[in-house]
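Posting for a labmate who doesn't have an account.
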Amino acid sequence: MTKGSASGEVLRRAAERLTSTSSTPRLDAELLLAHALGVSREALLLRLDSEVPAAFEALLQRRLAHEPVAYITGTRSFWTLDLHVTPAVLIPRPDSETLIEAAIAHFDSAGPATVLDLGTGSGALLLAALDQWPGAWGLGVDRSRAAIDLARGNAERLRFGGRARFVKGSWGDALDGQFDLILCNPPYVEDGAELAPDVAEYEPGSALFAGPEGLDDYRVLAPQLARLLAPGGLVALEIGSTQRESVSALMQVEEFSVRCRQDLAGRDRCLELRRD
């Protein structure tokens, strides 16, 4: 794969090589080649006769070693946004967009005035909400300084800097006041669970694992969410696909009414929590 090769043929061969590594080999190849060329994927697909830089092979080798495409390119699309990501944060996933869908169903076009994102990571959920509701203001909290710096950078680059604030902290421990919308995607994988190499070898374990049942952080969050939610507001809380009953029980102790929303694959994904 050297300069001068036709990119269409290079993509075909790269996708074949990635078949055993990725569930989306052609997409991965396209994203990596677009990154090597410094163009968007859409622009690449309009010119499949482009010359292929030698750097593409090095990117492909990293993906063949199971490194996620988002970490290789440093970007990930989420909702309506293109975010910068690094190995310091969990890669935003389409499943988490279910939380934004739940918020839209609750608030409609009026939207929340205030948004809290606990465990903000890259800032994906908070910034998606601020993009959806231009009149809203939001706070992102994370215990990782690297995550806070990344989220703040995403907010500034996407011109949300004046409407988003980020602070280092452990969930809602140090927060006062209440918020109309609380978004939270906590760690929920049980210790010792077998994960795909892309996840196990590259994504931060602190954003994944939460004790022997995957429930440790939910136990901490339940009373905090009850304290921080404003009247008439909504908590959109991500869960693992088998955790609906166990997490719902923890939230019902705090007198939340609980509904579950499924993701596009039909899996339980988001608990919608309200205080009646």
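Reply:
Got it, the structure tokens are right above this. The domain at 88-274 is CATH 3.40.50.150 (Rossmann fold).
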